[in-house]
Amino acid sequence: STFMGAAPALTIASVLPSDTGIYICYLNVNQGCIKRKYLYHLNGSCYIILPVNLKEFKGKQENNQHILYWKTSQEQEVEKYIVERQTVSAAFTKLAAIAAKGINSLQTYTYTDAQPEMGNNFYRLKIFHKNGAFSYSNTILMQRKVTAFDFTVYPNPVTSNRLTVTSAR
Predict the structure, then answer these.
(1) Alpha-carbon dihedral sign for residues 83, 89, 91, 93
(2) How far is CA 35 from CA 23, 57, 67, 95, in A?
(3) What is residue 87's predicted lDDT score, i.e. its pLDDT?
(4) Nearest to 98 by CA among 88, 108, 90
(5) Are 67 and 83 in contact (CB under 8 A)?
(6) Alpha carbon 11 to chain centroid distance?
(7) What 3-state DSSP class applies to 167?
(8) Tens digits of per-residue pLDDT, 27-71?
(9) Using the 8-state DSSP alphabet, how is residue 143 labeled?
């Protein structure tokens, strides 16, 4: 048992193997008005390299397609990325599996959803780690909007009960 102080914050500069274990923090505010007890398990694994560092996950629309791209670093423990999409009427579904490059330097990936649904499309990455665990990226919203198109209606005024409509597409 060690009393570490009554200051509002405590900084531990370094942790030695002998410092690992269960730490208990007692919080007492306003002479006992609020009392709390917190347990912290300091296990010495402060410097584990995370399996992936997802720098960004974004998308853009081009020609009624959604192009997704993401940048990573430190992905040596990542097996693959699953691109998932959710629309308003359904749960997330798998669109594609993309193998991780497994390199520690900055990597860039892209995926094109050639047939996004009309309206709101939510995308996320399901990141599979080599140890069998998985995690999720942030979710991004992309909207497929109908682009305007030209059409012609003639004659004006309509004659002989006949109207013709032609599209420029």
Answers:
(1) negative
(2) 17, 42, 52, 50
(3) 87
(4) 108
(5) no
(6) 32
(7) strand
(8) 777 777 777 777 666 655 544 444 568 889 999 999 889 999 999
(9) E
Q: What is the CA radius of gyration of the chain?
A: 28
What separation, in Å, do the N-terminal and C-terminal C-alpha atoms of the chain show? Answer: 79
Tell me the residue type at 6. Answer: A
CB 49 within 8 A of CB 74: yes
Residue with the two structure tokens 């798998």: 94
> pLDDT of 75-91, one tens digit each?
888 999 999 999 877 88
Nearest residue to 128 (alpha-carbon basis) of 84, 164, 68, 85:
84
46: left (phi over 0), alpha (psi -120 to 50) or beta: alpha
Query: Which H, E and C letters describe 47-115, residue by residue?
Result: CCCCCCEEEEEEEEEECCEEEEEEEEECCCCEEEEEEEEEECCCCCEEEEEEECCCCCCCEEEEEEECC
CA distance 141 to 138: 10
Q: Which residues of 13-40 are buried (b: 16+ CB within 10 A; e: fewer)?
A: eeeeeeeeeeeeeeeeeeeeeeeeeeee
Does the pLDDT at position 94 exceed 60?
yes
